[in-house]
């Protein structure tokens, strides 16, 4: 048995990566399903296949770039700050405004384009977080990409149901992003020399501080942003609206 | 005056059992005004909104909702019982309980999947949540 399989920190990273993939991959699944919905059945199958293939290819490229970049001085600090921000954003309530003005695409190419562009934007957080959690292990990076595939392809209903039932999953995920950010911060090549004499537990203290920071700031901002009145129940009219596209 | 009944429907066989129970109430002589409600879990995070138009998401909710309501509506119609149908978007248990409250229903009837063990731990029970949150009487039709 390879030695790393006996290392508890390896399994900790595996757990972290699975949680990240579930938490940050649900959106991709929803976009893929919705972007292909208006296509005829045969094209829809193709659209989903090529959309997923493109999204995963893009993710492989992005993650290898991320790994190279994270080795450069100071960039882990930047990555850590990005993760803190993503974690805090995860805890903010959703607003009704800011919908895309694009009409649903009815061509195969249009649907695939939507999926890939969306993935380029949406997988940035996933890529940084996975690169951070993998701590330079190529096996873990590959594992992270492999696990994200079923989540993207089949996971949307499961992820939605899980979050509907356990909203605390979102807080946990945000805390995890803060934890990884804290770890990344102290392993940056520019920061490391200053910490040469620091006790070995500093690494965990920094991670815990990151997690606490994200949950505290995220919750505080979330409370402030929440409207005072309870939003009315959102009912969907049974008849589609008659508009220019209909 | 007839009893305003809200039947929560998710398209499963369990919600059909809830419909059958309501028909039994009618056959026993109770004057009923049944409404079917399907709730869709909201899809739109900030990212989804950035790439998918609002109309596409609304029509997704509508199609999924109508599909879930189809069999239950047909079962009521087959029994000669007129009914209204509704689709709402939100947290499942909360939305059913609030809908009944705000729309002045006098009874919620909901089927239970009867999940146990691990499946229950992960998927949970919407019926249990409705019981906890509702301010009107709730009848849970258990999976026998």
3D architecture notes:
The complex is a heterodimer of chains A (246) and B (144). Chain A has eight helices and one strand. Chain A is an all-alpha fold. Chain A starts with 7 loop residues before the first helix and ends in a 10-residue tail after the last strand. With 144 residues, chain B is an alpha/beta fold. Chain B is built from six helices and five strands. In chain B, strand 1, helix 1 and strand 2 form a beta-alpha-beta unit. The longest helix of chain B has 25 residues. The model of chain B has no long low-confidence stretch (mean pLDDT 89). In chain B, 50% of the residues lie in helices and 21% in strands. Chain B has a five-stranded parallel beta sheet, with helices on both faces. Chains A and B meet through helix 1, helix 4, helix 6 and strand 1 of A and helix 2, helix 3, strand 3 and helix 4 of B. Strand 1 of chain A pairs antiparallel with strand 3 of chain B.
Features:
heterodimer, A: 246 residues, mainly alpha, 1% strand, B: 144 residues, alpha/beta, five-stranded parallel sheet, 6 helices, 5 strands, 50% helix, globular
Beginning-to-end CA distance, first to last residue of chain A: 61 Å
Count the helices of chain A. How many?
8
Mean pLDDT of chain B: 89
Low-confidence stretches of chain B: none
DSSP strand tally of chain A: 1
- Global outline of chain B: globular
User: What summary fits the major beta sheet of chain B?
Assistant: 5 strands, parallel
Task: Furnish the topology, listing elements before pairings.
The complex is a heterodimer of chains A (246) and B (144).
Chain A: H1 8-35, H2 41-70, H3 75-90, H4 108-134, H5 138-154, H6 156-165, H7 168-187, H8 202-225, E1 234-236
Helix pairs in contact in A: 1-4, 1-5, 1-7, 2-4, 2-5, 3-4, 3-7, 3-8, 4-5, 5-6, 7-8
Chain B: E1 3-8, H1 13-27, E2 32-40, H2 46-51, H3 54-78, E3 84-89, H4 92-102, E4 107-111, H5 117-123, H6 126-133, E5 138-141
Parallel strand pairs in B: 1-2, 1-4, 2-3, 4-5
Helix pairs in contact in B: 1-3, 4-6
